[in-house]
Design goal:
The complex is a heterodimer. Chain A has a two-stranded antiparallel sheet with strand order 1-2. Chain A has 15 helices and two strands. In chain A, helix 4 crosses helix 11 and helix 9 packs across helix 11. By secondary structure, chain B is mostly helical. Chain B is about 75% helix and about 5% strand. In chain B, helix 9 packs across helix 10 and helix 10 packs antiparallel against helix 11. The interface between A and B is large, with 41 and 46 residues.
Chain lengths: ~325, ~290
């Protein structure tokens, strides 16, 4: 317990002092990106890891929030109103999304979310009078909450950090609550949960809504970070990218999506300096992780660590009963 | 010629291509219980390879039909290879299999961009099918008519294969109850490879013969995959009749939608799918909910 506490403290101190020890503004921006993608991954992980429902349409939802923020600002609304309206519309979309895709689980859920994500992509791409089509929408300004201008790189980082920590705390409370336990129950034994009197569908629906909320929050940060939104943000590649974050880090753990987001954003930033072919690498990493380390980096390395530790403890002893098992 | 008639012919042509694409998708889904997310890529890779053969390698040009056969065989072999080397490693783990097909589709899309560049390739209509066919007072473009005929021939051939041959009976048994099929001595895992290769070949073939109509461009895979998905959700998985009817319906909605509501064409396309999901989740002709 004490090592965990120390690790948490070191991580927290490192996060708070990022603008001090990072070599430049560019890297502080990368850190902001990692944090809002981590919120997105945490949101998807609620579904993928804890509810056992793999969504391939989350980028569509992410895009809805980003587009609504952009469109509302174009209509001349203030930042607060734009963000509030965006969150409300996104949650309504998520409710529709969930109502449709929860008609099925497993592979059916994947297919329906994929199709819904493609609809939203198609709308963003073709409904030019609303979304600007391929040209996208640009945002002219970032908000200035309490007089702090988010155009300042460090201030944007700290704002993102605060929202990230709040989201992480909310997710931790969510998955460790009795509701979280019930959610994992519906993942592992839906029939028994039903027999025990739980409303499996409603539990999954609420999990979708929580996941959608985190997704929208990260999308608000994203759209203010890039100050631009185009259909590319909603593409299947984007949904796959965030799914890769969840799976590579370790679905169903709290740390996994954060590690995964760090890994994916870092690789993408470093690699894009050398080659244009990020998608090829994304696909290759995807295939490699699914085949070689299916439960992700965090559980995978924890298991590796435990087995090394156990081996070190047991060296010198005679392996009792080895080979004698029936 | 009447605008509506042109639209109708285009719809049936597009429906025919969609049928070739989605029949394989539906069979793979029925047998292996996974949506093969590389299906759009197989269509595009087939189209690119075929286009390269037709446009000529170092001045050696090929007839489109010969190119179609060669590219179909190549892509079918690639499909079989992917199934043997990658999907086979994850037996029974459907989620992992879907994710592998997703990863492969990104790799394929990027490889195509690397090899063929970003400019669209237009494939010339074969000389013998240029021009129009007169049927009474009506006039039809010959190549589109040819695609309709080819799709119809393939539909009949696939139906005969599934309903009248030993292999077809084995596939049907695998679709209905894979465990029971194994018990009575059918090597279901071998069927997986055969069906995957068959589906890949059909998708590639559709890509090539669709080339003169659709042109070949990066992103073609992402345009076709959702269509195959919608057809199969609409028609029902593992059902040949389902993908046939679904393809024709989607062919009509796609073409009429683009003519009448260009901004919302994509949205209109998915409406029947949503209706089916709400009212009849197993699809029009499907037997089990995916």
């Amino acid at each position: 317990v004490t090592t965990r506490f120390i690790a948490l403290f070191v991580a927290f101190a490192a996060l708070i002092t990022v603008p001090q020890w990072m070599p430049g503004i560019y890297y502080v921006n990368v850190a902001s990106q990692i944090l809002f993608y981590a919120i997105f991954a945490l949101g998807l992980n609620v579904l993928v890891g804890y509810a056992g429902l793999v969504s391939l349409g989350h980028a569509g939802l992410f895009g809805v929030t980003a587009y609504v923020v952009g469109y509302m600002l174009q209509l001349g609304l203030g930042h607060t109103m734009a963000i509030l309206i965006a969150l409300v519309i996104s949650l309504i979309s998520m409710a529709i999304f969930a109502a449709l895709s929860l008609r099925s689980t497993g592979i059916g859920f994947i297919m329906i979310t994929l199709a819904l994500g493609e609809i939203l992509w198609g709308l963003a791409y073709r409904w030019i009078s609303l979304t600007g089509g391929d040209n996208g929408l640009s945002l002219k300004t970032r908000p200035e909450p309490f007089g702090y201008s988010l155009s300042e790189v460090n201030i944007f980082y700290y704002a993102t950090l605060i929202i990230f920590l709040l989201s992480l705390a909310a997710t931790t409370v969510f998955v460790r609550s009795p509701f979280g336990a019930a959610l994992m129950g519906t993942r592992d034994q839906p029939r028994r949960m039903n027999a025990l009197g739980y409303h499996v569908w409603a539990i999954r629906f609420y999990a979708c809504m929580f996941s959608g909320l985190l997704t929208s929050i990260s999308a608000v940060l994203f759209v203010y970070y890039t100050q631009f939104i185009s259909p590319q943000t909603l593409a299947l590649t984007a949904s796959a990218e965030v799914l890769l974050m969840v799976i590579s880090g370790g679905a169903g753990t709290l740390l996994g999506p954060i590690v995964g987001a760090t890994l994916v954003v870092a690789v993408k930033t470093v690699v894009s300096g050398f080659i244009e072919r990020w998608n090829f690498l994304l696909g290759a990493i995807f295939v490699a992780i699914v085949i070689l380390m299916p439960d992700g980096l965090v559980p995978g390395s924890a298991r590796l660590w435990r087995s090394i530790w156990r081996k070190r403890q047991s060296t010198g002893k005679i392996p009792s009963g080895a080979g004698a098992k029936p | 010629m009447n605008l509506w008639l042109v639209l109708a012919v285009n719809s049936i042509t597009f429906g025919g291509l969609l049928f070739l694409l989605s029949a394989g998708f539906s069979l793979i889904f029925g047998l292996m219980r996974i949506p093969n997310l590389t299906h759009g890529s197989l269509f595009m890779v087939g189209a690119y390879i075929g286009a390269t053969f037709v446009l000529g390698i170092r001045g050696f040009q090929m007839n489109i039909w010969l190119a179609a056969i060669l590219a179909t065989i190549t892509v079918a072999a690639l499909g079989a290879l992917a199934e043997r080397l990658l999907l086979r490693r994850l037996p029974g783990d459907q989620l992992a299999q879907v994710l592998v097909t997703l990863g492969l589709s990104f790799m394929a899309a990027d490889l195509c961009l690397m090899i063929w560049g970003g400019d669209p390739l237009s494939v010339p209509t074969p000389a013998e099918l240029e021009g129009f066919v007169h049927l009474g007072v009506l006039v039809f473009p010959a190549y589109r008519l040819a695609i309709i005929v080819i799709a119809a021939v393939f539909a009949v051939a696939l139906w005969l294969l599934l309903e009248r041959t030993r292999l077809g009976a084995m596939i049907r048994a695998g679709v209905d109850d894979p465990d029971m099929a194994r018990v009575v001595g059918i090597r279901v895992s071998q069927l997986f490879t055969i069906v995957f290769a068959l589906g890949a070949g059909l998708a590639a073939f559709a890509g090539i013969i669709g080339g003169p109509i659709l042109t070949v461009y990066p992103g073609l895979d992402q345009d076709m995959l959702p269509l195959a998905l919608v057809v199969v959700i609409l028609g029902g998985t593992g059902s040949l009749l389902g993908s046939f009817v679904g393809s024709i319906i989607i062919g009509f909605i796609y073409n009429f939608g683009q003519a009448l509501l260009p901004e919302l064409a994509y949205f209109v396309l998915f409406l029947p799918m949503l209706l089916v999901l709400l009212l009849r989740p197993q699809g029009l002709f499907g037997r089990h909910v995916p």
